[in-house]
């Protein structure tokens, strides 16, 4: 499938890279189909709309930056995504002009079922996590120590 992107122009995307988000993304319910584009350099991916070239999210593996990150996926979300065994968790990264001030949204992870190519951004209610956890400590060189701080 050929899609248009704002960052890379035209891309040929394999069918297994396409994830359907039946309810869209919070605030963007009409966007229901995304390509998961893995970046070879580091623990990052792009979640690119297949319809809107300028609509994409930078995703990161939260466990790289916050090894103690954990949550219980609500049963309703597990059923909605038809998760049997495999699940991939990514979180949206907000890049800042000063890169050491970039943050990760641990409150609303993107949950992906790679077996069924289904996805959902899940808002964790009653959670200690926030939408803007700093990716780096004050020194700017190491991941933050604890996700809940």
TrEMBL record:
GO terms for biological process: bacterial-type flagellum assembly; regulation of translation. Keywords: Bacterial flagellum biogenesis, Cell projection, Chaperone, Cilium, Cytoplasm, Flagellum, Translation regulation. It is found in: Cytoplasm. The keyword Chaperone applies. SUPFAM superfamilies: BH3618-like (SSF141457). One of its GO terms (cellular component) is cytoplasm. Gene3D superfamilies: BH3618-like (2.30.290.10). Acts as an anti-CsrA protein, binds CsrA and prevents it from repressing translation of its target genes, one of which is flagellin. Binds to flagellin and participates in the assembly of the flagellum. Belongs to the FliW family. NCBIfam families: PRK13285.1-1 (NF009793). Interacts with translational regulator CsrA and flagellin(s). This is Flagellar assembly factor FliW. It comes from Paenibacillus rhizosphaerae.
């Amino acid at each position: 499938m050929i899609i248009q992107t704002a960052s890379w122009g035209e891309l040929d995307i394999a069918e297994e890279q396409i994830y359907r988000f039946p309810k869209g993304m919070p605030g963007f319910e009409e966007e229901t189909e995304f390509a998961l584009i893995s970046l070879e350099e580091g623990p990052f991916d792009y979640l690119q709309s297949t319809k809107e070239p300028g609509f994409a999210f930078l995703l990161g593996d939260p466990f790289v930056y916050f090894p103690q990150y954990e949550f219980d996926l609500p049963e309703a979300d597990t059923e909605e995504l038809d998760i049997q065994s495999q699940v991939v968790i990514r979180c949206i990264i907000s890049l800042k002009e000063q890169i050491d001030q970039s943050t990760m949204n641990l409150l609303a992870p993107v949950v992906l079922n790679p077996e069924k190519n289904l996805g959902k951004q899940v808002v964790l209610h009653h959670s200690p996590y926030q939408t803007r956890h700093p990716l780096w400590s004050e020194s700017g060189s190491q991941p933050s120590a604890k996700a809940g701080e």
